[in-house]
Amino acid sequence: MKVIIQPNAEIAAQAVADFIARALSAKPDLVLGLATGCTMEPVYERLVQKHRAEGLDFSGCRTFNLDEYVGLAADNPGSYHHFMRRHLFDGVNIDLRNTHLPDGMADDLAAECANYEKLIAANGGIDLQLLGIGLNGHLGFNEPLSAFRSRTRLQTLSRMTRVQNAPLFASLNRVPYCAITMGVGTILEARHCLLLATGAEKADIVAGAIEGPLTAMITATALQLHPACTIILDKEAASQLRKDDHYQRLTAVQTATPLLVGKS
Ligand code: GLP
């Protein structure tokens, strides 16, 4: 696991966008796993800028989002389908047929989950999976006690998660109770995982995820098992890390020798 600490949230988001842009330039048909949440908005804003200003090409890119709420149509402003179109897909030259999110309106949700796994496999697996982290340590919507080997499935959302995500809805009672999410096992199969966390409110859970013991109570601790995982933080999100100074020194070395960044 590589922990890179940036001075503030803007520079951290820029570093994540640069990381994705490098991966896409190196492999134009990149299979990119995508995440939602407020933390990702500045990352997508910068990717759109890179497309417009530098011609970053998404035409061959294939994407798979981590999750989607159950019961929300794609045009519902609270849905992740809507979030992705608004923040990324409509701003770049991606072919919408190459973008994938679970269908939370499917009649047979179990079949939808199984098909999502098959579709990821049929595309050769995920090259780079972008991740945020929930206040309870979830990845995607893998709530506490999600098995490390879990696959794409239906999840009931915790109250903490519904409260955290309520700002994207008119009120708390509009936040769905269930979602489809890639499993922890599905996420761990990505060739590279890239997690971004910013802000003081994430500091405790980030410290638990990076330095705490492995536990299904904090599903992000599963990333400690991943052979190629990069975590980019701002100073506030990093503030509860015990080995803070060690990571800062590593960041300095990696900045001086950028080829090291991204390799574990
Ligand atoms: C939702 C998503 C997660 C994301 C989390 C963080 O719960 N399902 O994938 O990590 O939001 O949200 P934010 O970035 O708004 O803190």
β-sheet strand percentage: 15-25%
- In DSSP terms, counting alpha (H) and pi (I) runs of 4 or more, how many helices? 8
Q: Which geometry do the CA atoms define?
A: globular
Tell me the distance between the termini.
6 Å
Describe the structure concisely for a colleague.
Helix content is 33%, strand content 16%. It has eight helices and ten strands. It has 264 residues and is an alpha/beta fold.
Structure description:
By secondary structure, the protein is an alpha/beta fold. 33% of the residues lie in helices and 16% in strands. It is built from eight helices and ten strands. It has helices at 9-26, 41-54, 80-87, 109-122, 159-165, 184-188, 203-211, 244-256; strands spanning 2-6, 31-34, 62-65, 67-69, 99-100, 128-131, 153-156, 178-181, 192-197, 229-234. The strands form two sheets. Strands 1-10-9-6-2-3-5 form a seven-stranded parallel beta sheet. Strands 4-8-7 form a three-stranded antiparallel beta sheet, covered by helices on one side. α1 (9-26) crosses α2 (41-54). The longest helix is centred in the N-terminal third of the chain and has 18 residues, at 9-26. The chain is globular and about 50 Å long. 44% of the residues are buried. Residues 35-39, 66-67, 132-134, 140-141, 161, 165 line the site of 2-amino-2-deoxy-6-O-phosphono-alpha-D-glucopyranose.
